[in-house]
Amino acid sequence: MGSASPPCARIRPLTGWRVGLTAHRRADEQAELLRRRGATVVFGSVVRTLPFGDDRPLRDATEALLAKPPDLVIATTGIGIRSWFGAAESWGLDRELTRALSPARRAARGPKARAALAAVGLPSHLDEPSERLDNLADGLVAGGVAGMRIALQLYGEALPSVIGQLRDAGAEVVAVPVYRWTAAEDLGPATRLVRDLLAGQLDAVTFTSAAAVRSFAGLADEIGVGTELRAALSSSAVTACIGPVTAEMAAAVGFERRCVPERGRLGLLVRALSTHLHDRHRHLRIAGREVVVHGASVWSGDDHVVLTDLERLLFAALAERPAAVVSRRALRQRIWGQQCGESAIDSAVSRLRRVLQPVDLTVDTVHRRGWTLGASEVECTFLADPLGALAG
């Protein structure tokens, strides 16, 4: 403990925490960002982003806009604009599409869509920094869209409310369906993700689209554990959402414990989750020394141990109120259920006692009553700075 900095300041912010990923697109990139900060990552994609297998709807919309160019173009996603122009290039229509859209006013739902427009030579005139399409649509309607022909790039969903709002305001809307959300080819990993959550083996689940949130909740409902999943994501585990639209869907399906960055960026999502989970660590004091409990890892100075899932559940029960006695019956009910024998509980406590020896934490036996963790809880004196100490 020679360093002047608090012991928790030297621990990577996601060390000891286990995070589930539901993303399909850029899942490896997200996993790498999480692992760099110390997380254990579990994959469980629920949806995937696909181009339309039959590109006829996209080509029909494109040709309609070439025949009668729009007055306004609404770009909703960067990948959508890039995919649209990529498809047009494959048809030999990219230059015609650029010419048709060039005279129109162009509105972008956030910086990714704005950058994609600029990349194809069509810089935007209006940007919505909140990245909320409803805010963008409200502003356009307030400014007047009656009599306008609007090209609206869809992003995986039909967007009936936005299309209806624009049409009710007197606009003609041409929907441009570039890609679609569909269920993952194999839902086995996502189902295991649900089971891990219910078993207390995940600390967070990340979502990069509202469609993924809706599908994850739907999957839990289909296998009969929807209520339990919502309870887990409202108490012990956190729903990490890439932006406000995804967070609103999480709220709508009943995931009450959420963290969300101010802007929808993968790096900012990881940073927000890092801050949220790091702030949940605990400090215990024993014999004048501080021990840090950081997810499934327990640290004493530079020494640390990593607990298995069962060891972590057992440790959490003992550490919930350090120095309080926890009975065999309480442990059985909380962790194993009534079918567990006394010898199994005794063996698990003995293993935990051995595992904790390198960090000098003791599990003491209280005769005929149970066990107690030989420590007391103290407050953390370190204020986590997501732009500084948590940047690693």
Low-confidence stretches: 384-392
Q: How many strands, what sense, and barrel or not for the largest sheet?
A: 5 strands, parallel
CATH hierarchy class name of the largest domain: Alpha Beta
State the helix count: 15
Range of helix content = 40-55%
Ends apart, CA distance between termini: 21 Å
Short structural description:
This protein has 15 helices and 19 strands. The chain is of the alpha/beta class and 392 residues long.
Overall description:
This protein has helices at 27-36, 56-67, 78-91, 94-101, 111-119, 133-143, 160-168, 188-198, 210-222, 226-232, 244-253, 266-278, 309-319, 328-336, 342-355, and strands at residues 18-21, 40-43, 47-51, 72-75, 105-108, 126-127, 149-153, 172-176, 179-183, 204-207, 238-241, 258-259, 282-286, 289-294, 297-300, 303-306, 363-366, 370-373, 376-378. It folds into three domains: 15-46 and 184-278, Rossmann fold (3-Layer(aba) Sandwich), CATH 3.40.50; 53-176, Rossmann fold, CATH 3.40.50; 282-378, Orthogonal Bundle (Arc Repressor Mutant, subunit A). The protein has 392 residues and is of the alpha/beta class. The radius of gyration is 26 Å and the shape is elongated. Helix 3 packs parallel to helix 5 (111-119), helix 9 (210-222) packs parallel to helix 11 and helix 13 (309-319) packs across helix 15. It is 41% helix and 20% strand. The protein is built from 15 helices and 19 strands.
